[in-house]
Amino acid sequence: MNFLLKNLTILGESSTTNILIQDGIIQAIGPDISAENAEEKEFNGAIVSSGWMDADVQVGDPGLEHREDLSSAAKAAAAGGFTAFACQPNTQPVLQSKSEILYIKNNSQALIVDVYPIGALSHNCEGKEITEVVDMHHAGAIGFSDGKRSIQHSGLMLRALQYVKTVDGIVINRPLDAAINGEGQIHEGYVSTTLGIKGSPSLAEEMMIQRDLYLTAYAESKLLIAGVSTAKGVELIRQAKAEGVQVKASVAVLNLLFDESSLSTFNSNLKVKPYLRSKEDQEALWAGLKDGTIDMIISNHFPLEEEAKKLEFSYAKFGAIGLETAFAALHSQLNGRMSSEALIQKLATGVRQVFGLPIPKIAVGEKANITIADPSDIWTFKRQNILSKSKNTPFINALFKGRVLGVVNGIRTHFN
Amino acid sequence: MATVQQLSTKHVLGIKYLTAEDIHLIFDTAQTFKEVLNRPVKKVPSLRDVTIANLFFENSTRTRISFELAEKRLSADVVNFSASSSSVKKGETLLDTVNNILSMKVDMVVMRHPAPGAHHFLSQHIDANIINAGDGTHEHPTQALLDAFSMQEAIGDLTGKKVAIFGDILHSRVALSNIFCLQRLGAKVRVCGPPTLIPKYINQLGVEVSYSVLDTLRWCDVANILRIQLERQDIKYIPSLREYSKYFGINKDLLDQLDKRIVVMHPGPINRGVEITSDVADSEHSIILQQVENGVAVRMAVLYLLAATR
């Protein structure tokens, strides 16, 4: 199938142009090009960039396919503008050996998005014994993590940081000290106090970030702090980077968009980890994103069946889907904190830079790997349009400004 | 000239969702019902043809009986449900359980539930009036109303009065509802207990915090003493009940050191010898049994006023 994509603004340029894609390859770029036997699509000046990548997607495949399988996750990702994502190891069984990594790689070959598995750091993500990370690396794992489970054992964390240096690998940890956190349901603060809900002190995150930074510096290894949510956490990372520690950090979309006050009505669709913290924390996350302390934005896509969410707040599970709404929701709330172009740039390059993956080029002769987004499109996100198998999102019926119009990844395309 | 007075809400999910006007209206109505309760014929026909379901997903004796009596004094039809004898144990969700009961044409739901916010959740999905009879560590609004009503009875208008809440503040829905209610009525509130049982951010609610029982007793006009909720403590917040009673319990010696007479309250059930000694609980300071009596009148008022919003 051949496409002539008309009137696109290439990210960073000021005038519009057309792009001709034949059999998945960019054949021509220019304002005056035309082609026979190509399907023409008009984009009225929308922005085209390298295809976006998300680094934190929970897929239920294998084992929890009723929540999300690779195919549905890929469709949701494409609808959200992503041409690649990294998936978490918290499946059943856990992605913890070469065979599970190959299962993901083999079963995602025909999908519109490139799927990069993250291998478990410890057996069954139990935080006790290290897995065969070198073997998984050679099978295609791009990093090692216990996913949604934080690594509590300092000794294991240190050995993991040391051992992944064999393959110049990166350890990914979600910082949350379980002993301090207890059964925290939401951020500990004014809202948790007025609701009588067990709070998670910011300290639980800050202490583990501090520990992990110490361990990373000692091991002279690479660490990705997944989903920082506290102002102090951002500051610790900023300092460590200044001192030359090889640390990277991500922030989840919902942490940029909401604070604890949105939980005062017990909305279980906003019951997520990392916890939605204070207004000051929220602004510190934006500041960290802007000055490069935080390297990338993650959708933190966590599909759950309705039965896990339509419950009393304390019984509801943590998590929200986010692939399809990441850009639109963020773009709707930029409020001058960042330009549309800067946001698109982060989504297109942030993750790939952290993992050392090549950034797709928009140039003649290159494989097409692009995302097209219109920052001015105003639209409503409807439940019936959700492509994810799960519908646990706080954004049903939300009015968004900014919309992904489509993606092309080689011969595969998706247009919204 | 009669004005129709109504609550600002169709549910009583917590004190924080009531206005000061709502609370005064409830008190005025409760005063009337208290007079009714002291007549030879204690029953009025106000809620005839109103069906009320008492859903208790957590154990309760006092609150359940108090509500049931209040409902019966108002001539409502009453059905009772408790989790131990229910389908909840078979895995039914709260929503399914309640919808099944509502299919039998129930107008009002009085519910106790271990999960904070359970009543909120329910109010978004069902049509009946909902009264919160305790939701985990969140709120217990009718307890706070009867506490404040009893305080007013004992010491008059609460504006500027000092009320201290002693004990396990962290796990107490009574403490939280009391704080909101007393502040609406203009009282000053202080909490006192072991630091591990006081929420870190409680001062953001505008209350004072103290770890000294004697200082706080000297400060206050009313001492509301809470039970140590061992069943809600997943980990040990205090070393032992012995040490707790020694350093945080209220006893006669402490009261004797005061140069004024204070009012002593307790929402029950009392752990005699732990947070309060018998010579305090049974003393002339104590209005514990008046609280129980007022509980029925206050609950009658809440039920009556909510039914009027239908």
Describe the structure in your own words.
The complex is a heterodimer of chains A (416) and B (310). With 416 residues, chain A is of the alpha/beta class. Chain A folds into two domains: 3-47 and 364-415, Urease, subunit C, domain 1 (Roll), CATH 2.30.40.10; 51-355, Metal-dependent hydrolases (TIM Barrel), CATH 3.20.20.140. Chain A is 28% helix and 23% strand. Chain A has helices spanning 70-79, 98-107, 133-139, 154-163, 178-181, 190-195, 202-219, 231-242, 253-257, 279-290, 326-332, 340-355, and strands at 2-10, 16-22, 25-30, 39-42, 47-50, 52-57, 82-87, 114-117, 119-120, 144-145, 171-173, 186-187, 199-200, 223-225, 247-252, 296-298, 369-380, 399-409, 412-415. In chain A, the strands form four sheets. In chain A, strands 1, 2, 3, 4, 5, 17, 18 and 19 form an eight-stranded mixed beta sheet that branches. A six-stranded parallel beta sheet of chain A has the order 9-10-11-14-15-16. A three-stranded parallel beta sheet of chain A has the order 6-7-8. In chain A, helix 2 (98-107) runs parallel beside helix 3, helix 4 crosses helix 7 (202-219) and helix 8 (231-242) packs parallel to helix 10. Chain B has two domains: 15-139 and 293-307, Aspartate/ornithine carbamoyltransferase (Rossmann fold, 3-Layer(aba) Sandwich), CATH 3.40.50; 141-291, Aspartate/ornithine carbamoyltransferase (Rossmann fold). The model of chain B has no long low-confidence stretch (mean pLDDT 93). Chain B has a five-stranded parallel beta sheet with strand order 7-6-5-8-9, sandwiched between helices. A four-stranded parallel beta sheet of chain B has the order 2-1-3-4. Chain B has helices at 20-37, 62-73, 94-102, 118-123, 141-155, 173-184, 213-219, 241-248, 252-256, 278-281, 288-307; strands at 51-56, 77-82, 108-113, 129-135, 162-166, 188-192, 208-210, 222-225, 263-265. Chain B is α/β, with parallel strands linked by helices. In chain B, strand 3, helix 4 (118-123) and strand 4 form a beta-alpha-beta unit. Chain B has eleven helices and nine strands. The chains are: A alpha/beta (416), B alpha/beta (310). The interface between A and B is medium-sized, with 24 and 26 residues.
